[in-house]
Amino acid sequence: MATEITTKERLERLMAAKAQLEEQISKHGQILAANDNVGMSGPLVDLEGFPRNDIDIYQVRQARQSIICLQNDHKELMNQIQTQLNLYHSEIATTDPELVNRASALDLDSDRTTGGANISNLAPARAFVVVNLVSPNSPAEEAGLCVGDAILRFGSVNSNNFKGDLGQIGEIVRNMQNQNVQLKIKRGEQQLDLILVPKTWSGRGLLGCNIVLPPEAMEH
C-alpha cells in the first residue's frame, strides 16, 4: 500500500526543486557576467550598429532566454510553495497552535538547509551585510530599505555563499539593472521581504545606498 505524501514532504520536494532552479539561474547569470556584465538588457551591438566582438552574442542570447524560462518556472514554483506552506500552517494550527508563530518564521531559502531542503530547520538566517546609508528618492528608499537593516539575502547571495567580498553584491546589481532583486532583511525582530530594482537615478550608482560588512565579520 502506497504511503500518502504529507504536506511537509511536498514542501521539502518543492523547496529542493526551488534550490535547483536557483542554481541554474545563477549559472546562466555567471555567463552574462563573464560577457562584460552585459546582464539581461545590455546592448549586443556597438555604437555603429555592428555586433559586439567583445562578447559571445550567441552565448548571451541563450543565457538570457534560459533565465527568462527559469524565472517563469521559479515564479510558478513559489506559488506552489506558498499554497503548501499555508496548508502546512493550517495543519500545525489544528495540532499545536503554539507552533504557528515558529512556522510563520520559516525561511523558504535553500540556504537554510544542509544536505537537502528541510522545513523543520527554523533557526534564524544570518545577516552577512548591513545597510548604513540610504539616500532620499533612491531605488533603495523606494524598495523600503532603511539604515540599520541587516540583509539575510540579496538576490542569489546569502550567508552560506557570501565570500566576504562586496563585489558579489555589485555583480548582482549590474546584472539585474532595471529588474526585480528579491531581498530578505531583518529589521529589529522582524524579517521582511523587499523588492529592489537597481536603476539609474539622480544620484550616484544604481541603488543609492551603502552596504557594509557587519561588525562581527570585520573583526575576523
TrEMBL record:
Gene3D superfamilies documented for this protein: 2.30.42.10, 6.10.140.1710
Keyword hit for Repeat: no
Ranges in coiled-coil conformation: 4-31
Entry keyword annotation includes Ligase: no
Matching InterPro entries: Nas2_N, PDZ_6, PDZ_sf, PSMD9
A GO term from the CC aspect: cytoplasm
Classification via Pfam families: Nas2_N, PDZ_6
Keywords: Chaperone, Coiled coil, Proteasome
All residue ranges annotated as the Nas2 N-terminal domain in the record: 11-90
Gene Ontology terms: biological process: proteasome regulatory particle assembly
SUPFAM superfamilies: PDZ domain-like
Domain PDZ: 130-187
PANTHER family: 26S PROTEASOME NON-ATPASE REGULATORY SUBUNIT 9
Family of the protein in this entry: Belongs to the proteasome subunit p27 family.
Protein name per its UniProtKB record: 26S proteasome non-ATPase regulatory subunit 9
Organism: Drosophila kikkawai
